[in-house]
Structure formats: C-alpha cells, structure tokens
Design a protein that fits this description.
By secondary structure, the chain is of the alpha/beta class. The chain is built from 6 helices and 9 strands, in the order βαβαβαβαβαββαββ. Bound molecules: 5-O-phosphono-beta-D-ribofuranosylamine.
Length: 209
Amino acid sequence: MYKIGVLVSGGGTNLQAIIDAIENGKIKNGEIATVVSNKADAYALKRAQNHQIEGVCISPKDFNTKEEFTDSLINHFEERKVELIVLAGYLLVLDKKFVKHFENRIMNIHPSLIPSFCGDGYYGLKVHQAALDRGVKITGATVHFVDEGTDTGPIILQKAVNVKAEDTPQTLQKRVMEEAEWEIYPKAIRLFCEDKLIVKDNKVIILSD
Ligand code: GRF
C-alpha cells in the first residue's frame, strides 16, 4: 500500500476526486496519509477532515528561512512514510531540495495540454484566458512528474477537451476540471500505485494497463 501526501492551497476538487477514487476502490494500492496546505483556511483541509484524513497547515510564514520550511515539509512526509507527493492546486513553488528528495515521486496537474499555456505565470484562470485569446479549438489537462522547472517534468497522462465559441475562462475551467482533471489525476495515481509508471529520458512509459 503506497502512502500518499497531498499538497493543497485552495478548494481541493482534485483532492476530492482522489479521495473518491480511493473510497470507491478505483485506486486500490494507495491511501492518503496526510493533506498539507500552506493556507490554514483552505477548503481542501475541510475535505480531508470530512473523510477522517489528517489535514495540517505548514506555511513558510511560520519559519525563519525557506530552507527551514522545506526541511519541515520533508520531515512531515518522511515521518508518515509518504512515497508519493500529489500537488492538487498547490500555489507555492517547491524548493529544489524537496524536488530532489522526492525525485519522480511528485505529481502535478496542469489545466492545459502541455507544452501549451504553461510555465511561469500560467495558473488558475490565466491558463484558460490564454487558450481563449489564442483561439485554440482544443485544450485539456496534463498530469506530469515535477522536476526543477515549471511544468517541464515528464508527462504521465493528458486528456483533450473541446473549446466552445461561447466559452469564458470560467466555463472552460469548469469543463476542463469535470471532463479531464478529475478523471486523469486519479488514473495517474492508480498507475503509480500499481507500479506501472517508468521514467526514462524525461518520458514516462506506461506499462500495459
Ligand atoms: C486545478 O485547475 C489544477 O489544474 C490546478 O489548480 C487547480 C486546483 O483546483 N493545478 P482544486 O483546488 O483541485 O479545485
């Protein structure tokens, strides 16, 4: 059984999709050991609590240096024997030391088809606004492993979503979540927990499912 640690900052709908996939047996070999937010009032912490999962706030504000904050995060996950870190709407950039410590064991979801509309400054509604400004007909979501860059790590799964002429950033964000994010994030976690993901030359090989 893999122990999963989830990092959040906000509403936590992806966290909810993962909790649901574990509770309904779609993810069999994984359990969430802890949910960590950098914001004490993140609704995602309440979602954890509702499912009897530990939810704690670890904020850089409570530490003198960034290094102390990073060490505290690493220790928190190590104490709970966490093997997979899942970023679910986590708005802080993780320090290199953290990324190296959990190399190829940190996943993120980005609400576009990487390499479109990703990298520094592309978060939240800005991603969808950029897709609409460019006039793309298809967008989607991408689950990837986290490396030291922003949205540059090995891609695990992607799913496309059609853009409609009448879309606003808000309607597009909602459809990308409903049609892509909540489906591919639990699936990527399931594949990891079944030892079906192999990283080679910055690419992910998925063993037959
Ligand atoms: C999602 O759009 C995800 O793609 C991005 O942050 C958002 C988090 O939403 N990384 P939620 O907190 O899971 O509802």
